[in-house]
Write a sequence for this structure.
């Protein structure tokens, strides 16, 4: 025979156990209305002296999606359908204070009635710890990005120093023989004038020659085509001088580009001169499949690191050339606005997909085939422009082309010294 249990004793025992549990417990009827809570729930939500009949789920929530009364009702409905729920919730105390809880919600039967049991834990401390961890992780990621950028800049600085040394050596080795050719070309032109003067004198003396001598001279003149030689030799000398001048210009542009023979210092510089120097350097990349259009505005000189800006221009121009598959146009524009100047390089190439636009300045990001690009060009360009306290704007449309606009202050950025 089973012992007879006193219902009053059982109810008292249940109440003691119910209130002794440290987690907050809510008992809902099948409509979602709160019918009973334990002391932990009353303390957690500030409901010690509140009529439960006047409280609905929405009053205990932050009220912002996905933590609204409608969201809570949907979770209750799922639990009532036999699907236990376990979720985090942004809750509200009776005082209005917001806090985070974990809720475990399930249906239970008592006699013939179905209730919903919600066990709630305050996870505010865990949330704060997680937020601190997330903040530290963000700081670490930012620091790592700065370190990567610093590493890229260091590599680029070493590269530029090597280019400077190479350019100085190349300039020295080429300038000497080019100087000889240029000087000898002048002497050759003087000698040619003397020979032509002598030829003119012989031609004037031709009528006074004996008939057989005159006939022999005229035959030789026809054989050698002296009239053609007189014209062609002048053309050959002019073309040779033009070629030598182009070689001298390329060497000078290479020296200007890399700032060979001097330290990299802030100074006043002509942006257009830097662009022309860089265009000459990358001419081989551009000439076979692009037409370069210049649309220059009036620009003041700016206080800058000229060779580093030339590096930016070179990267943009080379990228523009690589974006064009067969034949296209690269337009170089300049202008000014307020205390800034801008340089824009626009191409009629393939364009940049929207999902790539956010990453084009990331170090080592490239869409070029393996071996064709390092992914450093735009990252380094961004760092250089940022050093000048400038900015780079990009607009692009797939299939139509891309434009990069570099904005630079006219005056010296803070920390670069007195521009005077």
């Amino acid at each position: 025979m089973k012992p007879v249990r006193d219902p009053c004793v059982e109810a008292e025992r249940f109440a003691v156990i119910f209130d002794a549990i440290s987690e907050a417990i809510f008992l809902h009827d099948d409509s979602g209305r709160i019918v009973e809570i334990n002391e932990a729930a009353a303390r957690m939500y500030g409901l010690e002296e509140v009529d439960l009949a006047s409280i609905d789920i929405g009053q205990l929530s932050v009220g912002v999606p996905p933590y609204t009364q409608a969201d809570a009702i949907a979770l209750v409905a799922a639990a009532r359908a036999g699907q236990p729920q376990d979720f985090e919730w942004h809750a509200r105390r009776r005082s209005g204070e917001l806090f985070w809880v974990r809720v475990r919600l399930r249906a239970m039967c008592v006699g013939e009635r179905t209730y919903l049991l919600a066990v709630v834990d305050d996870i505010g401390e865990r949330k704060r710890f997680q937020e601190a961890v997330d903040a530290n992780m963000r700081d670490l990621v930012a620091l790592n990005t700065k370190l990567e950028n610093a590493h890229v800049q260091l590599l680029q600085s070493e590269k530029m120093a090597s280019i400077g040394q190479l350019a100085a050596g190349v300039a020295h080795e080429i300038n000497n023989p080019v100087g000889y050719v240029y000087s000898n070309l002048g002497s050759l032109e003087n000698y040619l004038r003397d020979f032509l003067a002598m030829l003119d004198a012989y031609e004037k003396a031709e009528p006074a020659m004996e008939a057989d001598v005159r006939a022999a001279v005229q035959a030789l003149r026809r054989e050698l085509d002296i009239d053609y030689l007189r014209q062609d030799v002048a053309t050959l000398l002019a073309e040779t001088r033009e070629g030598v001048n182009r070689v001298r210009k390329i060497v000078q542009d290479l020296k200007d580009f890399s700032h060979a023979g001097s330290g990299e210092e802030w100074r006043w510089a002509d942006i257009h001169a830097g662009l022309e120097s860089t265009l000459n350097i990358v001419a081989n990349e551009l000439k076979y499949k692009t037409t370069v259009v210049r649309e220059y505005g009036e620009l003041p000189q700016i206080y800058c690191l000229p060779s580093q800006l030339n590096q930016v221009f070179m990267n943009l121009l080379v990228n523009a050339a690589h974006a064009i598959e067969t034949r296209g146009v690269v337009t170089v524009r300049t202008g000014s606005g307020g205390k800034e100047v801008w340089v824009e390089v626009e191409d009629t190439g393939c364009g940049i997909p929207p999902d790539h636009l956010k990453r084009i300045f990331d170090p080592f990001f490239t869409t070029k085939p393996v071996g064709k690009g390092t992914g450093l060009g735009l990252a380094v360009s961004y760092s250089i422009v940022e050093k000048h306290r400038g900015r780079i704007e990009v607009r692009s449309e797939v299939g139509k082309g891309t434009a990069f606009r570099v904005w630079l202050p006219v005056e010296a950025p803070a920390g670069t010294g007195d521009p005077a």
